[in-house]
Amino acid sequence: MNNQVYEVFEAIEFKAKLLAQCWQNFHIEICQHLPETYLPEIEKLSHNLETALNQLVNELRYPTLTLATTGTTSSGKSTLVNLLCGAEIVPVAVSEMSAGTVTIEYNTQKSLVIYETPGALWECGEWKGITEEKIYQRLYQAMITYIENRETQPNLACPQSKIFYPIRLLNDSQWELPQGTTVRILDLPGLAYVGDQGNANVIKQCREALCIVTYNSAETDSQKVHSLLQEVVQQVKDLGGSPARMLFTLNRIDVFRADKNWPETENRFCESTIANIKRELTQQLREYSEEIENLEVVKLSTWPALLSLQMQSFDTIYSGEACKKADNYFSVLIEDILEDLPRNTQKWSVHDKNRVAQALWQKSYGQEFHDNLRSHINQYFPQLVIPQIIERFNIAAGNAVREWSLQTTTAIVNSSEEQYQQECDKISQTRSALQSLLEESDAQLKKPCEDLELKVKQVSAGESTEDLVNHIKKVIGELQAQAPYNQLGEKLFPIYGCFPELNKVINQVLEAVAKSLETGKVDLDTPNLKRANVLSVNLLSKNLQRLINLGYTGSLAKEGKKMEARTEAQKKELKQINEELNELAIHLNIILQDVLKQVSQQVVERIYNSVSELFRCHLAYIEENANNQAPHIAIKFPEGQLIKVDANQLTFNFSFQNGFPIHQGTWEEQIKVEKKERVWYTLWIWEKTFYETEYQTRSSDNAAIPSVEDLLTSWIIQSKQQEAEIVNKIATWLITQINCLKKTVSQIQDDIIDRYQARLDKAHQETTLDYEKQRNIWVPMQEKAQNLSEDFDSLGQSWNLKS
């Protein structure tokens, strides 16, 4: 979008006011020809339109720009937040400081609020007139206290804070925003690793946010790089919505300056990383394939860029500290300037500082980042905000004005005795035709879900062996092959693509457990296990260690073993292994429920977005056909009121069993029995001792101890068996949402037709038209109403805005 943001907002405001004037002109003209009985409803329409227009203008002049920041491990996300603010107010540390969410709102007066959260061990309250240093320290203490205690107190809620601060974005004249724009920055942790409901609530605000995702460019270990790519995908999923609204930042890019051929290595890294990010996102977010191909990815080194700003501060102490840090940590970026400067940074002049600051700003890609961010805001901020403002305006007044204008003029044109009955018959036919259209489109939309329900029953009854995941993919594919849903592309992918994703998560958790048992070294430091409650992971770790101590590791874990426990010690050992494996299943159930709950939230959110796209397409199709059949009834289905898919009803659960049966058996024990007998050569006087072997039946505990591979296979089979329930849940949930949509659409459609019938009846009773009056006054008036309706429809269309 080439227009400056404020010009876009001003243009919409101007057009809305022009619409209000068009209505005023229409209203004055039509009142000259209408009976006085029409005046109250016209005045009500005018009043509502004026109120809605004032609200629209207010929202256009005072919009809220929300920037949500998140990032991969050690990616410099907090420093980026400070760069956006223009001061060091959010704690930065070498260790991961993702401890709760921080909201920063623009205000000329500085203040900090740390909200009271369950179990808070840090000071909560509000501090006004606080300095940057005090903001930093108070947040640091809250975050570090949480980090130090979250393992021993897993139910401890993470800190929730709000800072009021004169954010630099609004003080920079280069940001071409409406004058009354409020800026809000949401500093988000990796929610997958915190699992706090407070954070989950903040995430919902990201739907109307422009998101900045930072990536740690300094990581070189191939295994960790792969993990970072997975983190990027998880961050995008957590944020929700289209990746098109996300600006990806390759942070800490200055690391390549140490290379002899740094431009080449830096460019090679950027090309490779961007390609890898796009590949990972496309594989896991196919519904956004087109948007992912056009992702914006920029280079940045946040810390030297922030130091560049601090060095130009009027506070000499603050500026001096920044100069010292720049000299200590980023001399490679300013080495060509340092030769001309005193070695003692305290002796640098203002001119020296400005030279260094400009070099840091340039070589940290600070200006390039800001240019890209400004372009990003210009392109997506209006698209996020304006369509919602326009829809609220239309719901409040616009739809009513266009409907009244079209229906009233059409009713009067058809109010004569000759045409009234014909129009009544036509309304009846239209009602029937529109109901048939609704029934047909509803049946088309519902058919895949009904097919799924039937297939699940057949599989459950053993009447079919078809793979249900393949079947759901098949029926969704068949739906997308038909108009109008063939316009959706990959948008419905999450409905069937969720199953491989859930299975992948389960497999990764199970594989971490299996590897720990096979190697004899417990290692549960995997991204998905970080989603689980820390206490639960610790209990699992201890359980695995006990199994290893019992000998369930190495060859036994790899190959399994048939064991016959004969002695009490062996029986005790076998019983302990069995109990620990059963306990392993208990711990896995708890952890997988925890992990899958969070993954399911992402999955359900994506399914929700898919179904919303499906319903949006469905509504557009019905609305277009309805208006083709009844062009003067002005049927309008407001998306915001209708596309309210209830995602809370869709939940996924998994349950696993483990252990092995112990059977009672018997075995024959050899026993040497001492015996004596008198021998003849002693004349049977003396006895000779000898031993005979006898066999006595003993009891044993017999069992086949499964190998880790057997356990893994069993768990995977169990998860596969539970897919039928999930497919059935999705099908049932979809049918419920479709039925709800149909009911609401039908009601809105009937209400609109009923209003037209009432207006036709009123016109028939209160107006008397001769042919000449109809032709000379009301047919042109009807055309003006049609033009007015089209003007209201086009309020946001000229900017090609998409929600």
Query: What is the rounded distance between the termini?
Result: 15 Å
Indicate the proportion of strand residues. Answer: 5-15%
Uncertain runs: 191-199
DSSP helix fraction? 55-70%
β-strand number: 12
Mean pLDDT: 83
The main pleated sheet reads as: 9 strands, mixed
- What class, by secondary structure content? alpha/beta
> Could you tell me the radius of gyration in angstroms?
36 Å
Based on CA inertia axes, which overall geometry fits? Answer: flat
Q: What strand order characterises the main sheet?
A: 4-3-5-2-6-1-7-8-9
- Please count the helical segments: 24
Q: How would you summarize this macromolecular structure in one to three sentences?
A:
By secondary structure, the chain is an alpha/beta fold. The protein is built from 24 helices and twelve strands.
Tags for this entry?
60% helix; 3-stranded antiparallel sheet; flat; 9-stranded mixed sheet; 803 residues; alpha/beta
Folded structure, characterized:
The protein has 803 residues and is α/β, with parallel strands linked by helices. The protein has 24 helices and 12 strands. The protein has helices at residues 5-31, 39-61, 77-85, 132-149, 168-171, 197-205, 222-239, 262-284, 289-293, 302-311, 316-329, 331-338, 350-363, 366-413, 417-460, 468-480, 493-519, 534-549, 554-559, 568-629, 639-642, 708-721, 723-766, 771-793, and strands spanning 64-71, 101-106, 111-114, 125-128, 160-165, 182-187, 209-216, 246-251, 296-299, 561-565, 663-678, 687-705. A 9-stranded mixed sheet has the order 4-3-5-2-6-1-7-8-9, with helices on both faces. It is flat. Residues 191-199 have low confidence and may be disordered.
